[in-house]
Amino acid sequence: MAELPSGTVTFLYTDIEGSTDLWERHPEEMQVALARHDTILESAIGRVGGVIFGRTGDGMVAVFASPRDAIAAAVTAQLGLKEEPWPKAVGNVRARMGLHTGEGTLVDGQYLNPPINRCARLMAIGHGGQVLVSAMTEPLVRGALPDDVGLADLGEHRLRDLSEPLRVFEVRHRALPAEFPPLRSLDAFPGNLPVQISSFIGRQVELDRVRRALQSARQVTLTGVGGVGKTRLALQVAAEVLPQFKDGAWLVELGAVRDPEGVQDAFAAVFGVTSRSGQSVGDALEDFLRAKELLVVVDNCEHLLDTVAGLVDALERTCHRIVILSTSREGLATEGERIVALPSLHSPEADSELEDILVSDSVALFVDRAQAVDAEFELSGENARSVAQVCARLDGVPLAIEIAAARVATMTPAELVRGLDHRFEILAGGRRRAVQRHQTLRAAIDWSYELCTDPERRLLARLSVFSGGAAREAIEAVCGGEPITPGHTFAALSSLVAKSLVVAQRAETRTRYRLLETIREYGEEQVAELGETQVLRAAHAEYFCALANSMSEELLGPRQIETARLFEAERENLLAAVHQALDSANVDLALRLMRNAPPVNHQLGTPTFLPDRAILSLPGASDHPLFAYCMAVNAVHCALRGEVAGVESACLEALAAARRAGAEDKLFVEILVSNARGVRSMASGAMADAAQCWERSIDLTRSAGMAIYLPGFLASAAFMHEMAGETDAAIARASESLELARRLGRSTLVVMNLAVLAAALVDRDPIRSRALLDEALQLRATHGFEGYADSSQITFTAARLGDWALVLLVAPLSIRALHWSVQRPALAGILNVVARALVGTDPETGGILQGAARRLIATPHHTEGPAERSNAPGGSVSERAAKPVSFVTEIRRETTALLKNSVGEERLRDLRASGELLDEEQAVECALDAVKRAS
Fold first, then answer.
1. Which residue has the higher pLDDT, 257 or 314?
2. What secondary structure does DSSP assign to 14-37, as a single string?
3. Which CATH class is domain 7-186?
4. CA-based nearest residue to 306, from 261, 273, 245
5. How far is 178 from 355, CA to CA, in rounded Å?
6. Nearest 5°: CA angle at 71, between 69 and 76?
7. Dist CA 85 CA 604 (whole Å)
8. What is the pLDDT of residues 473-503, one digit of tens each?
9. CA distance 787 to 749
10. Listed range (521-530, 606-615, 881-890) with the worst mean pLDDT
11. Which of 431, 680, 868, 886 has the largest CB neighbor count within 10 A?
């Protein structure tokens, strides 16, 4: 093998797409194909001086001194693969490739892993025939590529190392394909896995153990001492296995939950689940998760073992497609639990050979964290053994190592060793038991804590009140006061960051500060000893109550997307504030939080529903001035969650309470009640009824002169009018709303109205309709958001324009969202549209989806009692739902005719019958698989 370059190098990582299946079906042909594949890649890489230094299954890893040469090799290889006459049984061999530039540090003739791992994860989000380039490589080749080679900016994407988003580019060449499905980044899957600000070091053996455990057990618990890295490993495993769970991976954080009764609420808050009247939260969770296929990471269970075990056991018995990965200092003792004990990182002895020290995971962790505070720090022959001794004396506990590594800005590794001798007598001797390792961790924190000034110690303790971190403004507002003098909070905070006791997580526009979980628990203890717990939690709740109100106002203006992302960041703090109000039975605070919280339809991502039933059930709630408003909000939430049977009773109770309130409250309540009834009608398929409900909201808003709320109600009315086939009304409302939304800078409503107008004009002016649709898609891409309602509307409009490629591109988001929220009529419509898109490539699945859609329409959505039916505006659902033949029906008829010509009438009947046997979960899975194959 040629000499490996060092310094700044570019790595190439490749893999053959779908090779496992090909090996199983055609092993002999694949042996021939793989040999030819290897020859093509080896020639392309060697021609420009690249060096192949690793093989990974059916791929390879190469390194280049020049990023330009790396891109040239990738392009040449892809051209060679494209032109090769492959064996007929195998078909075209398509390789996905990733290129990433980083520091090529050689140790004993091998590269250290971090940049190679980054390259592998970049490659993993691509598709066969695609070459992806990282943001670290692109600036180095900008303006230096041949005329026939270019780079297309694909935007920012989160890779499976859970780090901050990485800007990704695609290599373009006129002779290579330019159209690929969306990248398989974390953003392509549902879930709430948080960004990690530090790299994941080592733990390959443990990663493999946990992955294997998850293949054989549905409940796996990671155990180990505090600070050993259970949470980080669990999150990394979740990111690695995410593609196996079509409903995503979800983190339930229990560290801030102190009352066992709050465990179910913590689960419910993550999934936006609340219980119906007479139903427990646990039963509601089981109902919601029963048909889902997802991974739940339950973090920090040790202080709530019995309660968590009971809930996990119940979910495991009733929800057969969910898998639970928990972290705890001891097992949950549930039936079928698989425990994976997480040891400390391996630490070499101080007298080990230098080569052994250099490849140690604990030493690698120390070096990585040390370089974060001192970019000039390097491991050398002079300091390597001192670093090894520090790691060994800290028993390889990652958190203790990280804290010690932060000291290299002011102390040498040799001085660190002497400091440990002085401070940690507990480390003397040989191997220690787990409890003593926990004492070692506490000693490490104690040591850093004692080095702080009095204001820094107090601030560190007070920071424990935040869930998921906080911005500077929140910290200054909540954590000030003696002994922290006015104006000095940020100085103390900066010092804590420098001492690695507080993590500064930097984003484009603001920095968030958070504590590692073990330090946060340490801080909670200090706050309790100081007697500040209740006062601090009350101040925290009041601050986020005011912030929620401010965010709700900003969501109505030009900063709505930025504000919606701010809400995403503060979601856990807002929920913690609500739980503080509930725990202290502070009905005034609880109702103000519910009143101020951003409306669900203004949020981005998975919507957050506050526990409104618990709030409204607090003693004295019904006598509070905000009760009527909050009960009306509850009615809207019931409708959005598909709890149709509870909508009207909540509406009537809200209206009755409003009659006892002031005129302004009564008007707001009437508007919310009208919206709730509109959502209920929409969920039941009565679009004309829904449109009339929002028309009433428009009239009430105009009469009150509240123009700021008009665009949202106009957009909703336009959407319902269009779905009901009332084209002129849809155009009028959408045009008015679009003008107002542009004036107010509300991008999400601009997109929504563009989509509605495109749908309304598709028959009258298809050219303008397409232009409006393109503008909506471009605006979504520019601002980096996707709305579920937008996706459904765009899918339907693309179908009416005959753009089946766009249908297949946009439909998956709609399918997942409509299935998640149990919107069966709309889901049936999407399935019929997808069936038409599949006629040319997969007619048999198209027939199955027609049958599945028919069953969805025939399946009762929700049960309504007589009171709900009799109070439905404009008559009963059955009376109002009868509409002229819609475009979905027309598409279904067109699809049927095409399928009869393709597969025959008798075969089509059989396919439809097969589809009607599928339940909703199976139908969704069938559609998503078919779209994936077609793409």
1. 314
2. EEETTHHHHHHH-HHHHHHHHHHH
3. alpha beta
4. 261
5. 46
6. 95
7. 47
8. 999 999 998 899 888 999 999 988 877 788 8
9. 10
10. 881-890
11. 680
**Helix, strand, coil distribution of the chain in percent, nearest 5:** 60, 10, 30
Mean pLDDT, range 794-819, rounded to an integer: 88
Q: Residue 207: what pLDDT?
A: 92
Residue 201 Ramachandran class (φ > 0 left, ψ -120 to 50 alpha, else beta): beta
Torsion angle of alpha carbons 370, 373, 375, 378, nearest 10°?
A: -20
Q: What is the pLDDT of residue 435?
A: 35
In the prediction, which pLDDT does 358 show?
76
List of residues 6+ apart from 224 with CB closer than 8 A: 230, 329, 341, 342, 343, 434
pTM for this entry:
0.69
Distance CA 603, CA 571 (A): 10
Residue count (the chain): 935
> Facing residues of 325 across strands?
220, 297
Burial profile 740-768: b = 16 or more Cβ within 10 angstroms, e = fewer: bbeebebbbbbbbbbbbbbbbbbeeeeee
Distance CA 853, CA 168 (A): 38
pLDDT attached to residue 426: 32
Q: Which residues pair with 219 in a beta bridge?
A: 324
User: Tell me, which fold does domain 454-531 have in CATH?
Assistant: Arc Repressor Mutant, subunit A (1.10.10)
Q: Which DSSP helix (H) or strand (E) runs through 133?
A: strand 131-134
- Element of type H or E holding 96: strand 95-104
pLDDT value of residue 664: 60
CB neighbour list of residue 514: distance below 8 Å, 6 or more residues apart: 466, 468, 469, 470, 502, 503, 505
User: Are the C-beta atoms of 122 and 93 separated by less than 8 Å?
Assistant: no
Grouping H, G, I as helix, E, B as strand and the rest as coil, residue 327 is: strand
Instruction: Return the CATH fold of 204-341.
Output: Rossmann fold (3.40.50)
Tell me which CATH code domain 565-776 carries: 1.25.40.10
Residue 731 to residues 748, 797, 881, Cα–Cα distance (Å): 18, 14, 21
End-to-end CA distance of the chain: 39
- Which helix H or strand E contains 152, and what residues bound it? strand 149-157
- Determine what percent of the chain is predicted with pLDDT higher than 70: 92
Say if residues 787 and 749 touch (Cβ distance below 8 Å). Answer: no
Would you call the peptide bond into 348 cis, given omega within 30 degrees of 0 as the criterion?
A: no
Q: Which pLDDT value is given to residue 433?
A: 35
| pLDDT of amino acid 475 | 96
- CA proximity to 594, closest of 629, 619, 554: 629
Query: DSSP characters for 232-276?
Result: HHHHHHHHHHGGG-TT-EEEEE-TT--STTHHHHHHHHHHT--PP
Q: 217: which DSSP letter?
A: -
The secondary structure of 716-780 as a DSSP string is HHHHHHHHTT-HHHHHHHHHHHHHHHHHHT-HHHHHHHHHHHHHHHTTT-HHHHHHHHHHHHHHH
Find all residues with CB under 8 Å of 829, minimum gap 6, and list them. 796, 853, 888
Query: Under DSSP, is residue 9 helix (H, G, I), strand (E, B) or coil?
Result: strand
pLDDT level of residue 432 (50, 70, 90 thresholds):
very low
Between strands 59-64 and 51-56, the pairing is antiparallel
Spatial CA neighbour of 254 closest among 470, 521, 522:
521
Rounded CA gap, 1 and 4, in Å? 8
Q: Give the other-Cβ count within 10 Å of 34's Cβ.
A: 17
Distance CA 99, CA 77 (A): 13
CB atoms near residue 413 (< 10 Å) = 24
Could you give the dihedral angle defined by the CA atoms of residues 913, 917, 921 and 924, in that order, rounded to the nearest 10 degrees? -10
Between the alpha carbon of residue 200 and those of residues 163, 236, 361, the distances in Å are 9, 8, 10
